[in-house]
Design a protein that fits this description.
five-stranded parallel sheet; Rossmann fold; single chain; 2 domains; 11 strands; six-stranded parallel sheet; 318 residues; 12 helices
Length: 318
Amino acid sequence: MPITKVIFLGKSKKKTGDTKFMFNALQRRVQKAVFINVPRYKKLFFWTDFKKVIHKKVNRVNPDLVLIYSKDIPYSVLSKIRTIYKTAIFYPDVNVPPDKKLVSYGRLTDCLFITNKGQIAELKSLGVKNPVFCMHGCDRDDHRIIPTRNRKWASEVAFIGRPSIDYRIELLQAINQHYNLKVWGAKWQVFGLTCLKKNVYPKEFAKICYASKIILGCDVREDIVCHTSNRTWIALGCGGFLLTRYIHGMETIFKKGVHLEWFHSKEECLSLIDYYLKHDEQRKKIARRGYQFVHSNRTYDVVIDEIISHFENGSSML
């Protein structure tokens, strides 16, 4: 069945721009795409039942597919439209155990697209009828190389994110003892690290990637097969040399030493930082290959095409 009209529900996500990038790709893929900003509807229609307004909007558009970012739809609306329209959720995060609210939503939708392979069997056992692996991507336009001479963005090693786990905190503290490290993100001061900017927006992310010799990746979970955060794809999409924590199954997505580099321990991370700071050309070559790989294979246009094609062709994703 051709998918020509799609309603996309989500938040604005100003910091990451994820919903904007996905919606732009959706507009390029289908004849008509409509975005419903759920928090905005709730604010605008405070004087009435905003859920009814959203429901009526969906019915007026009469879409071939209702695509939901994360859990950004009232449960009552989803339960009413699920028997009339094809529905899908793109869930960008990973929770262990799986988020109970997500499971309840996933039971109602035709497809739940998740960014890892490791939880598919578990979600099925919990009653989610069709969990499908679908990775993040980068934006074809905004996630690009943006040259800058401003030393504000420059460092030997840069990390963008928050102090979410002890491993990440201890790793950055160790790096900071030996190298010029800049940390971008909130709440690092309590751990003895200077937070240079609380929120980093897409163009600033690109400048950090251009000016920093090494972009450090340290995802919260390394044991969930093939789960990579959106920062992995954004860093590569902005031309950064990415040195990241190894995630189970990462070798099925990337080639080590070709698209990026990874480490298994804090000691190996420090050793690789030392090596690549001394081998500029090799580091730059890997960054170029990573940039080319992501923009050829994993933009949000590819992500959206996978989602739409899943419904049009009934195809499965690896």
